[in-house]
Amino acid sequence: MAAVSISGAFLYTPNSVDNTVSVVDTSLDTVITTIPVGDGPHRIAVDPSDRYIYVTQFRSDTVAVIDTATWSLAASIPVGRVPEGIAVNPSGTRVYVTNSGSNSVSVIDTATRSVAATIPVGELPKDIAIGKDGTRIYALNFLGGSISLIDPSTNTVTATFPAGNSPAALSLVIR
Predict the structure, then answer these.
(1) 17, 68, 98, 129: which is deepest, by most CB within 10 A?
(2) Does the model's pTM come out above 0.85?
(3) How would CATH label the architecture of 1-78?
(4) Fold exhibited by the domain 81-175
């Protein structure tokens, strides 16, 4: 799934067959660069400063970190099995990744570029969303037909509630 930079100047799209991320300049509607990353780029999240792009790589069980100042791969962070959904908290200090192959959420510390915590959630988590103030994180569990509510201050699931049969994606509308 593609993502747009915070400024709106760029569109980022993962290319899972050739293991790259394409960068589109939205004012020109042209690909300006293609960045090699790890195996199986899948979903993308952008940090609030527009400085880094985080890409789940489902075949290598990693998250790629792309530096937008140089359009290059800055790091590759090992996470749980088959990472899919990804979101960055509002302060840019944590990245949350659903690992559908290990029924967990990895919490990445952006300063150290390492996993700070692993949170067990429901069955086959596919997507993740963070509330506007960053105090509520929602992990969507596809096979469990549920949503796990995560408290980022304790890195624990505080509630699980039904979400229908095989829910596939999350989106938060902030009013």
Answers:
(1) 98
(2) yes
(3) Beta Barrel (2.40)
(4) Neuraminidase (2.120.10)
Domain boundaries, the chain: 1-78, 81-175
**Arithmetic mean of pLDDT, 130-159:** 95
- For the chain, give the mean pLDDT: 95
Q: Are 148 and 136 in contact (CB under 8 A)?
A: no
Give strand pairing partners of 15: 20
Q: Are 10 and 25 in contact (CB under 8 A)?
A: yes
The separation between CA 24 and the C-alpha centre of its own chain, rounded to angstroms, equals 19
Contacts of 173 (CB under 8 A, 6+ apart): none
Which tokens sit at 56? 């789940």
